[in-house]
Specification:
binds adenosine-5'-triphosphate, 21% strand, binds ligand AH0, 2 domains, five-stranded mixed β-sheet, seven-stranded mixed β-sheet, Nucleotidyltransferase, domain 5
Length: 364
């Protein structure tokens, strides 16, 4: 066995995913652990996504707190599995993205990797995005190479979409280089809207969205945002699709809509930005496999199937991969790539000048 831990704390800021992964042959998920972020840390991380007073020190303090949460989770997971630190080759720790501005040459993930190595006694690989950006790439998305490793088929043209806070698509065409790019909002705008109007973290199963009506005029207007027509390489995040983007769009729309109909329209926006990008970039695609938290949103899954009638729309579970743990597994795999000196980026995806080994190692 070659045991790696992948740690992901995604843009939706719901919590920390830890995946114990065997990377001796095809990646296998052996065990997993989820820890919600303590509310104070969650709101501080969210605040740090924008500039504010004393942010350098606050970023460092929040990074340490994040690493402590991860170390606690890792210790618990290892104890449950009767493993010790010595059994683990390395931790691949994505960290928490607080800024993503590849056009200005940076993407910032905080997570105190030195402290995490110290607290766990395990080597940590972190800072996966900066080398790709230094080589002219977007630094994101990085999971397409892992999707290719797990899901590429000799015959079927497949696509994967990870629907977390934002959504990113991977296109797997037999005999061709893997393609991939961010499509736009995933759950982030829906989460923000339901939080504002109903005080809930997310729209469980998409029930609220399903009870409203999609306003097609508003949907068309939202889809006119130039990001959607742009072809890859492209990536996005909270800097672009934020609640103020939605408020500006609603102001431009003018007509007052029921909150529930806006939720229905946001759900349709996520489905359509994915389906449009997929059809534009790989019209031969036969199957769409969904992973990330959005795979649990029944209304979103139904809208995706409606928008893509010629394709089979499934979650990755249909191929035996739990949709909730793929991102964390991807960072375990990327950590091994770094340790082995193998490139983790794919220039056709990120737009980097070439293949690069991603990440920095903090030895145990
Ligand atoms: N049962 C459910 N019904 C509807 N939506 C759900 C459900 N469970 C999770 N979600 C959505 O999935 C989100 C979390 O998804 P995920 O864990 O993939 O995000 P992430 O790791 O933060 O994302 P990213 O890929 O952007 O880094 C939640 O914020 C919520 O919107
Ligand atoms: C900068 C950043 O954290 N980007 C995330 C985010 O969440 C989804 C999408 O935007 C994707 O680009 C990326 O995550 C996955 C793990 C990736 O790099 O493939």
């Amino acid at each position: 066995m070659a045991l790696y831990l992948g740690v992901m704390s995604g843009t939706s800021l719901d919590g920390i995913d830890i995946a114990l992964t065997d990377l001796l042959g095809q990646p296998q998920l052996l065990a997993h652990y989820f820890s919600p972020l303590p509310e104070a840390l969650r709101s501080e991380l969210l605040a740090l996504c924008q500039s504010g007073p004393d942010e350098l020190a606050r970023q460092a303090v929040a990074g340490n707190a994040w690493a402590e949460c991860v170390a606690t989770g890792i210790k618990q997971l290892l104890a449950e599995q009767n493993l010790t630190a010595a059994d683990i080759c390395a931790i691949g720790s994505h960290g928490q993205t607080v800024r993503h501005e590849p056009a200005r040459g940076f993407s910032v993930q905080i997570g105190a990797p030195a402290l995490l190595a110290e607290l766990t006694g395990i080597s940590v690989v972190a800072d996966f995005r900066s080398r790709d950006i230094a080589a002219g790439g977007q630094g994101a998305p990085l999971v397409p190479a892992f999707h290719q490793q797990l899901f590429a088929d000799d015959i079927e043209v497949r696509a994967l979409v990870n629907i977390g806070g934002f959504s990113n698509l991977t296109l797997l065409t037999p005999g061709a280089a893997v393609q991939g790019f961010d499509c736009g909002p995933g759950n982030a705008l829906m989460d923000a809207w339901i939080r504002l109007h109903r005080g809930q973290d997310y729209d469980a199963d998409g029930t609220w969205a399903a009870s409203g009506h999609v306003n097609h005029t508003l949907l068309t207007q939202l889809l006119e945002d130039p990001f959607f027509a742009q072809r890859g390489p492209k990536s996005t995040g909270r800097e672009y699709f934020h609640p103020a983007w939605l408020q500006a769009q609603l102001k431009r729309f003018g007509e007052k809509l029921e909150a529930v109909d806006i939720q229905a329209t946001l759900c349709a926006l996520t489905a359509h930005c994915i389906s449009q990008a997929l059809l534009a970039q790989q019209p031969q695609c036969q199957r769409l496999l969904v992973c990330g938290g959005g795979a649990h949103n029944r209304q979103l899954m139904a809208l995706l199937q409606q928008a893509l009638p010629a394709l089979h729309v499934d979650t990755t579970q249909a191929l035996g991969a739990d949709p909730d743990w793929l991102e964390a597994m991807a960072f375990a795999w990327l950590a091994k790539c770094c340790v082995d000196g193998t490139p983790g980026n794919r220039p056709a995806v990120t737009g980097a000048r070439g293949l690069r080994v991603l990440g920095a190692i903090y030895p145990a």
